[in-house]
């Protein structure tokens, strides 16, 4: 350790300790000289030199060596209390003692420096290994920079340090240490980095951060590529799923219209009316498919903002029944007169109910009834829609709410009804799920009876 590396307080303590150690050894020699030849006791000053060399470094150890020999000469070698020597041979002894003390002190200081260097390198390696482990475990760099700054401060021996990705301007009282253009280290301005911190640890830290930044960029590119791939897959699924549902009614409409427009075909009134009815019913079917696609698009784009109102549940069901046409006769409503009103967007919840009822009617045996009943539950009204169909496989109860998925193997249609139903339910603060029921399909719609915060 150099004197320049010591603070004023450390230097003062070192000087006091040096003087104290020389005084202590001198006192010990004074006690021992009646029993041991005094010239042999000079070697005891080596212990004072060793102590100072280990704790405060070579410069103070050399000073202690010289002070020890002068003290030994002054107090113990005749003539005492002078720096003269009665026996000239004692100069050689003092010189040997001085050289021995200086060499031993230098070796002790060197050993201490090596131990400090080994400890510092261990701290650096441990810090780098910890950072690498955390980053490789998937922790984002933006979330880890605060902890990295704390570890860097501990390694560099500064009171605080912070890491910023990229190049940033320092705040007042901060010093900027660029890290290979990848990041910026900011430390208190009064501290200057030298030695191994600047030549070994910081380049390694910069390399580690560069690898993490590159990994993050590659991960982002991979996510973007995966998103594009999934988007293409979804578009392909949409085209495959929708093409049949659009082509079938269009084909029927074109065929019926061609029959009506062909002058060579003579049609009786009943046949003409049947073709007109075909055009009307297939156009309505086509309109329903397009309407579902538009509903899904609104839900996916976040444009389906609800406008909740307080509505009686029988009023909402009446609106939905009107959309079912003749199939309404198969729906049996079992509502209590004391069912509480619900706070929802009536248009959107109507779409939920229509899709649920159409799904139940589709999977019920011909002529069987679909039952609807209400059940108050706290601040919700549970609306049960139960059909007599085959039910839903427990492993597919969540999958049926995904777009272009069906509730059964024999299902036809575009497969959007349940996805739209759950989407409109959720934007209204409601919930929709499949209930376990061995008797058939059983959906539960939980409608809020009070105003609730809905997703933006």
Task: Report what the structure shows.
The protein is built from ten helices and ten strands. It is of the alpha+beta class and 456 residues long. It has three domains: 3-118, no CATH class; 238-301, Signal transduction histidine kinase, dimerisation/phosphotransfer (DHp) domain (Helix Hairpins), CATH 1.10.287.130; 309-448, Histidine kinase-like ATPase, C-terminal domain (Heat Shock Protein 90, 2-Layer Sandwich). The strands form three sheets. Strands 5-7-8-10-9 form a five-stranded mixed β-sheet. Helix 2 (45-56) packs antiparallel against helix 3 and helix 8 crosses helix 9. The longest helix is centred in the middle third of the chain and has 66 residues, at 196-261.
Task: Describe the structure in brief.
Helix content is 57%, strand content 11%.
Question: How are the SSEs placed, and which strands pair?
Answer:
Elements lengths: L7 H25 L12 H12 L1 H19 L12 H48 L4 H16 L5 E4 L8 E6 L3 E6 L7 H66 L7 H33 L7 E3 L1 H12 L6 E4 L7 E3 L1 H18 L6 E8 L2 E7 L30 H11 L3 E4 L7 E7 L8
CATH architecture annotation of the largest domain = 2-Layer Sandwich
CATH class of the largest domain: Alpha Beta
Q: Which stretches of 5+ consecutive residues score pLDDT under 50?
A: 408-412
Q: At the third CATH level, what is the topology name of the largest domain?
A: Heat Shock Protein 90
Number of strands: 10
Number of separate structural domains: 3
Distance between the termini: 64 Å
Q: Residue-averaged pLDDT, rounded?
A: 77
Order of helices and strands: HHHHHEEEHHEHEEHEEHEE
In terms of DSSP E residues, the strand content is 5-15%
Major sheet size, sense and barrel closure: 5 strands, mixed
Assign the structural class, choosing from mainly alpha, mainly beta, alpha/beta, alpha+beta, or little secondary structure.
Answer: alpha+beta
Instruction: Assign a percent range to the helix content.
Output: 55-70%
CATH superfamily (homologous) name of the largest domain: Histidine kinase-like ATPase, C-terminal domain
């Amino acid at each position: 350790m150099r004197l320049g590396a010591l603070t004023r307080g450390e230097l003062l303590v070192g000087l006091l300790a040096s003087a104290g150690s020389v005084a202590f050894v001198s006192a010990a020699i004074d006690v021992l000289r009646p029993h041991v030849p005094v010239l042999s006791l000079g070697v005891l000053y080596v212990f004072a030199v060793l102590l100072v060399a280990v704790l405060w470094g070579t410069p103070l150890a050399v000073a202690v060596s010289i002070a020890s020999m002068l003290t030994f000469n002054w107090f113990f070698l005749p003539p005492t209390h002078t720096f003269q020597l009665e026996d000239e041979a004692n100069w050689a002894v003092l010189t040997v003692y001085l050289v021995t003390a200086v060499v031993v002190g230098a070796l002790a200081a060197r050993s201490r420096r090596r131990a400090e260097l080994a400890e510092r390198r261990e701290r650096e390696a441990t810090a780098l290994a910890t950072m690498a482990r955390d980053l490789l475990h998937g922790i984002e760099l933006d979330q880890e920079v605060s902890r990295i700054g704390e570890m860097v401060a501990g390694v560099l021996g500064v009171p605080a340090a912070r890491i910023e990705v990229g190049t940033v301007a320092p705040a007042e009282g901060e010093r900027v240490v660029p890290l290979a253009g990848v990041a910026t280290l900011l430390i208190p301005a009064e501290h200057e980095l030298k030695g191994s911190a600047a030549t070994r640890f910081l380049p390694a830290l910069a390399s580690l951060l560069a690898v993490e930044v590159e990994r993050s960029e590659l991960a982002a590119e991979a996510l973007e590529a995966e998103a594009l791939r999934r988007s293409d897959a979804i578009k392909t699924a949409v085209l495959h799923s929708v093409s049949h549902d659009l082509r079938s009614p269009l084909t029927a409409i074109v065929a019926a219209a061609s029959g009506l427009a062909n002058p060579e075909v003579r049609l009786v009134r009943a046949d003409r009316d049947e073709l007109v009815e075909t055009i009307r019913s297939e156009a309505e079917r086509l309109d329903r498919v397009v309407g579902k696609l538009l509903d899904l698009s609104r839900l996916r784009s976040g444009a389906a903002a609800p406008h909740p109102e307080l509505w009686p549940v029988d009023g909402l069901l009446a609106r939905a029944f009107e959309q079912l046409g003749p199939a309404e006769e198969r729906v049996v409503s079992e509502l209590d007169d004391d069912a509480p009103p619900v706070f929802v967007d009536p248009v959107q919840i109507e779409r939920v109910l229509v899709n649920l009822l159409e799904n139940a009617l589709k999977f019920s045996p011909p002529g069987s009834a679909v039952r609807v009943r209400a059940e108050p539950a706290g601040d919700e009204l549970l609306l049960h829609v139960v059909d007599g169909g085959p039910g839903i496989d427990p492993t597919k109860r969540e999958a049926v709410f995904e777009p272009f998925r069906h509730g059964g193997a024999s299902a036809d249609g575009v497969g959007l009804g349940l996805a739209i139903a759950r989407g409109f339910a959720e934007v209204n603060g409601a919930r929709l799920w499949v209930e376990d029921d061995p008797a058939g399909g059983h959906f539960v719609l939980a409608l809020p009876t009070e105003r609730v915060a809905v997703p933006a």
